[in-house]
Amino acid sequence: MDTQKKTIFSGIKPSGDLTLGSYIGAIKNWVNLQEEYNCLYCIVDMHAITVRQEPALLRKRSLAQLAQYVACGIDPDKNILYIQSHVPAHAELSWVLGCYTMFGELSRMTQFKDKAAKNEDNINAGLFTYPVLMASDILLYQTHLVPVGEDQKQHVEIARDIAKRFNGVYSETFILPEPFIPKTGARIMSLQEPENKMSKSEMDSDGCICLLDEPDTIMRAFRKAVTDSETCVRFDSENKKGISNLMTIYSVATGKNFEEIENEFDGCGYGDFKLAVGESVVELLRPIREKTQDLLKNKDYLEQLYTEGAMKASRIASKTLDKVYRKVGFVKKPRF
Does residue 2 sit within a domain? Predict the structure, then answer.
């Protein structure tokens, strides 16, 4: 890693297929960061199992997600791509940091409350301590910036709090990470419920577009997209949530700004606009879908990719973990 560059870490759970929201809100921005920063992008499969997963499907989605990272333009030669469970230091640091995290801090986490409400039959300890593992993910690599949506800022804040507490007890050990929130396209909303973020939990509905969806599926979803009772294509995030969301998507897919979009569809009905948005997304995702399909046919290459990524990540992580173990008083780890 280039010591002159700042480090970025981010990851997505393989608990569902990657969505258009995942791409516009996260992965597309990752691609733009790979020249300027040292970047580690992870498939966070350990986080995924806080909710019950079908094992074969989790493995399939983890590999598909790795392939999609590459297909979206994340260069394995410029970034470290790996699977979280392949780097044991994540779990090891998580235990130590859990001993420096207060119960009250975790009980106030919004995401725990939301997930507990949705999984009443499986409110497990992993759901509760999830932010500690996320803090470990970030702090292991002396991360400077964490690309997150507004709904994830709280996790970066608790990582900072844990790092400050540890640093205060044992001297400077961790860099304090900062959230990195893109100015545009950070939140793509559901096509059916535009007041809610597009989510993998909607995959069986017409509210969500997945990166590997076929063109017919994409066009059907956009034809059914919720709009409003007007017929004017105009950006108004408060009063025209559905149209504003479609304009955001169209802007990302075509590179046009909102004023250009309003002029293009001046006097047109919503039907024409939704058709155009759908077609632009089909073309945006076509090369991603085709390249992903090609990569998934080459399992040897994907195995080489995640193996090399885990080795690189482990080398960096071990330096932080060794320092932490020494500071808390553990006997130096043997190398096997």
Answer: no
CA distance 252 to 286: 15
- Per-residue model confidence as pLDDT tens digits over 273-286: 999 999 999 999 99
For the beta sheet containing 178-180, the strands, ordered from the edge strand earlier in sequence to the opposite edge, are 79-83, 38-43, 7-12, 145-147, 178-180
Catalytic residues: 115, 197, 200
- The pLDDT averaged over each successive group of 10 residues in the chain (336 residues) is 88 92 89 92 95 94 97 96 98 98 88 70 85 97 89 88 97 95 72 88 78 95 92 90 94 93 92 96 97 96 98 97 97 84
Per DSSP bridges, beta strands 79-83 and 38-43 are parallel
Q: Which helix (H) or strand (E) holds 5?
A: none
Whether the Cβ atoms of residue 79 and residue 37 lie closer than 8 Å to each other: no
Instruction: Tell whether 210 and 274 lie within a shared domain.
Output: yes
**DSSP class of 27:** I
Residues 227 and 172 in one domain: no
DSSP one-letter code for 188: P
